[in-house]
Specification:
Helix content is 34%, strand content 19%. By secondary structure, the protein is of the alpha/beta class. The strands form three sheets. The protein has a four-stranded mixed sheet. A three-stranded parallel sheet has the order 1-4-7, with no helix packed on it. The longest helix has 27 residues.
Amino acid sequence: MTGPVTILTHDYSWSVLKKKYGIIYGNQRKTVIGNNVFIGGGATILGGSHIGDNVIIGANSVVSGNVDSNSVYAGNPARKLMTLEEYRDKREKRQLKEAVEYVLEYKKRFKTYPPEEKMDEYFFLFKPSRIYTKYRSQLELMGNYHETLKKT
């Protein structure tokens, strides 16, 4: 999760009914967030929502109901934009161009090329697979270091 994210299991609508009718009507629902889920800053997950595994939720999205596993959702209300496989393919096609743009902008601003540590999202594009040993601790945090090595 990044930035402020709100995850609800209830709401405060009962207060309107309490004031009007004098009775509190409970409204609490189970909210489930699966494994390997990224929730962008400002997102709100409403009570009763069920988010599957391997999901990306865009910033400022409002999630209500069921969110399919292996998917990307965004918006208010959050809607399925694409599968996770489609998103992977999209990122794979764009990453080299974005890395080059980053390097050129860095050079323009600082009058030098960025050092390796400033290329943390792109270092693997420019280095042989042995470089993964240098970043092993960071990659191990993601829980799939050995799988990453197989794909290089």
